[in-house]
Design goal:
Elements (H helix, E strand, L loop, with lengths): L2 H25 L5 H10 L6 H20 L5 H18 L8 H24 L6 H13 L3 H19 L5 H26 L1
Amino acid sequence: MKIAKKWTKFLIGLVVLSFGLVLTIKSNLGVRPWDVFHIGLTKYFDITIGQASQLTGLAVIIISFLIIRVKPTLGTIISIIIVGFLIDLVVAFIPQPVNIIWQYLYLFCGILIFGTGVGTYISAQCGAGPRDNLMIALHKKLKFKLGIIRNGIEVIILVIGSILGGPVGIGTVCAALGTGPVVEFSLNMMNDSNDN
């Protein structure tokens, strides 16, 4: 894949996933574990959700480097900056859902859009996000399966975020169960298009 095409796909993926994130946040039905943590941080510090995401990403990069010297790629740095910026930009323009039907519509559309964005940016192969780097670092260090590491990280983050006051609900469960299959489907579609 040509460099320009790769980076264009990468950036489009970040824009799409950011829009999906905001929809799940606006649904007020609960969000993914990392977003529970990000929103929880905003209740204790004078920062936005996007800034909380950026600061968390930076902290995760440092932790990954300390664990097994995983150096962030340019794509990792760009993803932290852009996603945090876009969350704060988009959240100001998306209206609150007017009733429970719209809340669930926001939630399920958000999960689909977020998963599609993740699959798109991963398929560009411009670098993993900071949270994925942490998962890989712990996998190499502890020798546990990636799935166990990922679930363990998300449970810990979810508990901490919940204690901080982040929104946990049916949306958290739906996002946990639904995001993976959407990402996998999107990634397969993108990889097929790369091969053609």
